[in-house]
Specification:
It catalyses: N2 + 8 reduced [2Fe-2S]-[ferredoxin] + 16 ATP + 16 H2O = H2 + 8 oxidized [2Fe-2S]-[ferredoxin] + 2 NH4(+) + 16 ADP + 16 phosphate + 6 H(+). The protein has about 525 residues and is of the alpha/beta class. The protein contains 22 helices and 14 strands.
Length: about 525
């Protein structure tokens, strides 16, 4: 059995079942960690909660909506503006966040009156916005606030507004994936079918599980437009509230992120008979195959092939340039959800890197199955790792670069491992033929960054003391300071030294005056 036990987690033996090393000749029956289970107490998980999955991942990208969290302000702040879900209405949903700001007294006496007051204030503050989503949090779910009743009351008083209620308290699932499911089904139950959209093409799709991270969606919409396809709605990147109410009239649901949005696709198929087609916008081969599948469904394969040929001719040579220079570089692929398997095979095949580890914080067994199957022998697969396990893995695996979120990424940087933001990107978009080259460029820049190479140099035994006044001492030359200033404790100057090359003989009167003044005081 290839289970991997972390030294830092030996005190929690259950964790051993959540990490595996893929051994020679092993298939998924031998090399699959347990996943999507309740967090083991004491492991200090870095998972997001169900509320986070509903609001932060899926709800917030809707652009013409007031996103109001009914709960303590901390819940709202933690899910505000940490991903680059851009929109073409001046990024309204990124600029503003709304909370009912529930406090202790509201927990005791109820917060329904507070919620109604907040709803009305929000609509009054932004009179051009007529749509709202209200998210339930742990605190208000536990005290039993009926937010649906309050929403109905407001819509009766103000017929021009429409409100969607998402009952998504943080404890609603083992991880944020539980929130994905809740908002998917709630939207379908409450809003889909309440607006009749205008159909302008013979080929009509919903683009589902796409959140327009740094413009990803716009890249894909351009391909669809060139194929003559009408995108009825996008769930939910740069999407409008009313367009998403008309999802029931599409001919096909094109699904990108299966982990966050397969639920609504499956229900649309069951209730309205709309087929589901899974695609992948990452990687030249995967994207080409995806466009072909869509073309085949509608009988317009020739249009897809024309796009693939044009884009490949333009961008494949640049991708090959990076592949040659990234060959054999070691990568930890720790993105969280479906990018675990969207990227694993593609970056190895098309960029030449070696994936030495994959992990997921909220993925299901299906995500791990696809991710592990696309890795080579010796890869370490981890479910729901904590910070100490992540550090131990980095020390053991010694990767050249890590793809992960901001929090573990900042830890990796302190360990002198460059990271790329797998959730919000560094210099995206990463989808599309050009986007994949942009991703390769970011990997190349991370691996060969002079700053990261300098960070590995030990300066603890440097000729110059690093405890105080380092920059000032090197900027001030012996020739430009008075004896009094040289001896000042402000500068920490202890005797003649060679300043930074190029500064010798230059005068810095402002520094000299400041040092002399501070010494006199």
């Amino acid at each position: 059995m290839p289970y991997h036990e972390f030294e830092v987690s030996k005190c929690i033996p259950e964790r051993k079942m959540h990490a595996v090393v893929k051994g020679p000749g092993e298939d998924l029956t031998h090399a699959l960690p347990k996943g999507y289970l309740n967090t083991i107490p004491g492991t200090i998980s870095e998972r997001g909660c169900a509320y986070c999955g509903a609001k932060h991942v899926i709800g917030t990208p809707m652009k013409d909506v007031i996103h109001l969290s009914h709960g303590p302000v901390g819940c709202t702040y933690d899910t505000w503006q940490t991903k680059r879900y851009i929109s073409d209405n001046n990024n309204f949903q990124l600029k503003y966040t709304f909370a009912s700001d529930v406090k202790e007294k509201h927990i005791v006496f109820g917060a329904e009156k507070l919620l109604k007051q907040n709803i009305l204030e929000a609509f009054d503050a932004f009179p051009d916005i007529k749509r709202m989503t209200i998210y339930q949090t742990c605190a208000t779910a536990l005290i039993g606030d009926d937010i649906a009743a309050i929403a109905e009351e407001v819509m009766t008083e103000r017929p021009e507004v429409d409100i969607f209620v998402c009952n998504s308290p943080g404890f609603g699932g083992p991880s944020q994936s539980g929130g994905h499911h809740k908002i998917n089904i709630a939207w379908l139950n409450q809003k889909v079918g309440t607006v009749e959209p205008e159909i302008t093409s013979d080929y009509v799709i919903n683009y589902v599980g796409e959140y327009n991270i740094q413009g990803d969606q716009e890249v894909m919409l351009d391909y669809f437009k060139r194929m003559g396809i009408q995108v009825l709605s996008t769930f939910t990147g740069n999407g409008t509230y009313d367009a998403l109410r008309g999802m029931h009239r599409a001919h096909l649901n094109v699904l990108e992120c299966a982990r966050s949005a397969e639920y609504i696709c499956d229900e649309l198929r069951a209730r309205y008979g709309i087929p589901r087609l899974d695609i992948d916008g990452f990687g030249h081969k995967a994207l080409g195959d995806s466009l072909r599948k869509i073309g085949l469904f509608f009988g317009i394969e020739d249009r897809a092939e024309a796009i693939i040929a044009e884009e490949t001719a333009r961008w494949k040579p640049e991708l090959d340039w990076y592949r040659e220079r990234l060959q054999g570089k070691r990568v930890c692929l720790w993105p969280g959800g479906s990018k675990l398997w969207h990227w694993a095979h593609a970056i190895q095949e098309e960029m030449g890197v070696k994936v030495v580890s994959v992990y997921t914080k909220f993925g299901h067994q299906g995500d791990m199955e696809k991710g592990v199957s696309r890795c080579g022998e010796g890869a370490l697969a981890i479910d729901d790792p904590n910070e100490l396990e992540g550090q131990e893995a980095l020390l053991t695996l010694k990767p050249d670069v890590i793809f992960t979120g901001k929090r573990p990424g900042e830890v990796a940087k302190k360990m002198r491992v460059p990271y790329l933001n797998a959730h919000a990107y560094h210099n995206g978009p990463y989808k599309g033929f050009e986007g994949w080259v942009r991703f390769a460029r970011d990997i190349y820049n991370a691996v060969y960054s002079p700053m990261h190479q300098l960070s590995a140099i030990d300066i603890s035994k440097d000729d110059y003391a690093t405890d105080k006044g380092f920059v000032t001492r090197r900027m001030l030359s012996d020739a430009n300071l008075s004896d009094e200033a040289k001896a000042s404790p402000i500068t920490g100057y202890t005797g003649p030294f060679d300043p930074i090359p190029g500064l010798r003989g230059k005068s810095y009167p402002a520094f000299e005056r400041r040092v002399a003044t501070e010494a006199a005081e």
